[in-house]
Amino acid sequence: MYMPIAYNMDDVRKVLSYPDINTVGVEMIASSEEAELFREENVRWIREQGLYLWVNTITLSGLKEHTLYGGLDDDRALREGPDKSWGVLMDRGIDILQTDWPMQMREFRKEKINR
Fold first, then answer.
1. C-beta atoms surrounding 17 within 10 Å
2. pLDDT in 10s for each residue of the chain, 115 residues
3. Which helix (H) or strand (E) holds 54?
4. How buried is 85 (Cβ within 10 angstroms: 0-12 exposed, 13-18 middle, 19+ buried)?
5. Which pairing describes strands 5-6 and 25-28: parallel, antiparallel, or unpaired?
6. CA distance linking residue 79 with residue 48, whole number of Å
7. Which of 16, 18, 31, 69 is the most buried (most CB within 10 A)?
8. Burial of 63 (0-12, 13-18, 19+ CB in 10 A)
9. Which helix (H) or strand (E) holds 25?
10. SS3 for 69?
11. What is the Cα–Cα distance from 53 to 65, expressed in whole angstroms?
12. What is the pTM of this model?
């Protein structure tokens, strides 16, 4: 099973073009809200290919050039509230959220499911 890191739709299409590789999902990197892999239509297309969606919410140094997914990161979740980051990603159908704050995310997820 293979789960590549993709920075754009060309990366996703390229990995899907190899029939002998069992691609099960994609870790999506989007440096801004304008990035291809942040767009809902592209997220939907990837999901329609039967792939899991992975987003890394870890905050790397707090610098804009280190944004991993359009600013929807752990810092925003902790500073502005989890709905502003983790909740948005969950609502978009992201399957895997990598975080430095698993206990806080777990509690938020339990609360969100019970709403």
1. 9
2. 999 999 999 999 999 999 999 999 999 999 999 999 999 999 999 999 999 999 999 987 655 666 899 999 999 999 999 999 999 999 999 999 999 999 999 999 999 888 7
3. strand 52-56
4. buried
5. parallel
6. 33
7. 69
8. exposed
9. strand 25-28
10. strand
11. 22
12. 0.88
